[in-house]
């Protein structure tokens, strides 16, 4: 039986009437995305039509999911809310704090020792508040969600941007900051601006070397890393129906890389097959009764241009395998063009590592298709030219592929089998030699490839591709190898050629596992004690942020004017910093250390206006805070793209930054700033970014009149005494302004408001 089957049945019981009412209010057929949104309104039965990209709407998600790195801060906040249990089913998954180095067994043992304090804390908090707890080694959050919790037509929020993976089973699953998760766990509404809709019509059928991964790599190339911002991407067409549920999950997963709110597919036979294979026949029975409500109305897919804000069409029969990168997941290169592109851009041709897995591509189908290439290499007598590593998505996947001989086949090629965890995908990789900073190339099936993300080396050129292409490129040792047309020399000097990959969508013997790693919470957690040592370097109980004093912010100093790409990795790095995710003061020592200073083109080097010296960003901000001087951060386009980590908002808030003024925001980060009681502002005129000078002092002239739709006026006083008046836009509504006034959204929850 599925987890929380009664909750799922309740969703299906109420969905038809709500969708029918919404269709009446909107006055036209509905997309799947609209059906799920209107079926999950906080008010219950819809009473009005909402305008896309304009109206803020309160929703009631069905469940909450948290990974260990973000769960620490989320649950520390939830402890402040004064609740005895979570209002909706919630889970914690320990997958981020395990360093990949030697191999699964030893790496997991090290993590269980080094992070014992954190794992014990998460286990006890989960036990106390009715939260399901998935132990270290159980698997990657998004694969476990797909295997156990995702269901067609549901709505889930998760404290990780790749929560969107669950769209592979027809959900609206959305990445959020921890404060949003706390709201929902505390029984409050969750607010979202009603999204735009992007339709992707898939015709034809995948064949040969082309995989579901190539669909999203192509979409990322078309839309770029910000092209999906504020939108839900809905995939449909015969091509969509021809793909597996886990393949759909891969496509939805990387929707985070185009800034999409989420992505989804309509309920179909592939989802039925997957739900049945993962022991959820009861979900299939319930979903089949309302199947028409779990996909768009027929008129929508027949004439999609009338119902979507943007429409993309991809013929899968003509789609080539893609290799995206380096340094950004939206730079797409078809495999046939890689030789030319690599030479033109001086990319290192030699492939040093091939990495398969992560939440994006760690399903049984992924592993079976990749190992089909590995098996061919063994049969053809080819010794791989690059090193290999795999991360199974869950203990269920690992156990099953071990039973079926897939792991043994990988190990014949010298593959390192890492823990069922994120590992290199999030920088949790102790790669030998990375500290030398040498220029090199790696290929992986992950979702992100920003500079320094995998191994900390800014000169590592990371390319994203499908698991089967990773296998082929790593075995050949060349980035410009095209397995469709190129031959290789085997160990005997003979020319050989790979056949296209093949693999089972689902294991023919079924899934199997001895211990999935799940800990059910106590039936009554009132007596469970949660202990946080005051001397801990890993965990720190939170103090509420101070409310706004009702006055204009004056005398603020410019902390940094960030130039170019400034992701949440730049604002709050992962990797070795993950160990401090539960200690706000300690992790604040990584605040903005990866951002490039526009005035000297250096990272972690800004001018201290108190001394005139250049120092590390956190050190300068701590001096401003100690002196009682407010500060602001200025940034470029799509500021805060990437991970959902709320630390990127909480660290500046904790250290005394009052506002972030940028050309544009990534959605999740803007919301995180609002939740923490900060001012997230955008230039009314983007060219005003160029007026900001290094020694500026900033005064807000009309913050006392802060109101929805009303611009704010900022005075930038330069070192020579001259001034520039800059107008700033914002997207705060009345309730979000109350968060600012109270000091944070959590302060209002704790006050019972």
Automatic annotation (TrEMBL):
Pathway where it operates: Carbohydrate metabolism; tricarboxylic acid cycle; isocitrate from oxaloacetate: step 2/2
Protein's GO biological process: tricarboxylic acid cycle
The entry's keywords: Iron, Iron-sulfur, Lyase, Metal-binding, Transit peptide, Tricarboxylic acid cycle
Entry keyword annotation includes S-adenosyl-L-methionine: no
MF annotations from Gene Ontology: 4 iron, 4 sulfur cluster binding; aconitate hydratase activity; metal ion binding
UniProt-listed Pfam families: Aconitase (PF00330), Aconitase_C (PF00694)
Reactions accelerated catalytically: citrate = D-threo-isocitrate
Top-rank taxon: Bacteria
E.C. number(s) listed in UniProt: 4.2.1.3
Gene Ontology CC annotation, any one: cytosol
Domain Aconitase/3-isopropylmalate dehydratase large subunit alpha/beta/alpha: 34-477
Cofactor: [4Fe-4S] cluster
Positions of the Aconitase A/isopropylmalate dehydratase small subunit swivel domain: 558-686
InterPro entries reported in the protein's UniProt record: Acnase/IPM_dHydase_lsu_aba_1/3, Acoase/IPM_deHydtase_lsu_aba, Aconitase/3IPM_dehydase_swvl, Aconitase/IPM_isomerase, Aconitase_4Fe-4S_BS, Aconitase_4Fe-4S_dom, Aconitase_dom2, Aconitase_mito-like
EC primary class: lyase
Family in the record: Belongs to the aconitase/IPM isomerase family.
NCBIfam families: aconitase_mito, PRK07229.1
Protein name per Swiss-Prot or TrEMBL: Aconitate hydratase A
Record lineage: Bacteria, Pseudomonadati, Bacteroidota, Flavobacteriia, Flavobacteriales
